[in-house]
Please model this.
Amino acid sequence: MAESGLTESGEAAAPAPVIPVAPGEKPWTDEELAEVRAELEDEVTRMRRKLASAEAELHELLTEGSDVVGRDPADVGSTNFERDQGMSLAANARELLEQSLLALKLFDDGQYGVCEACGGPIGKGRLQAFPRATMCVACKQRSERR
Ligand SMILES: [Zn+2]
Model:
């Protein structure tokens, strides 16, 4: 049993990663890759900001929510509603942030553009529209229909 630690494809000496494209698509150019990467970084910045403000707002609501005595019940109700909204907003931002961070990590690992479900190419057109995508259209639709 001789374990060289190298796979058949020789991972150790991998040059610049080649991001796959769907059949019929042209290979990625450096500019296109830089654009998608910048888009992901933008998204991370945006989501971090959104998450921070959603959490700050939530904190405010929670603090003022403890002071319900003598308040109009309708006010309390709308505060609860706002709090629920704030929570789902924060949860949503956190999820998008995590997805973007994952996509960036895949990018740096040279795994970007590979469908996590079937291992096939996600496709350039799809990634340019949804840089966060980690599944090809077919797998995505299958997972949503489930
Ligand atoms: Zn797939």
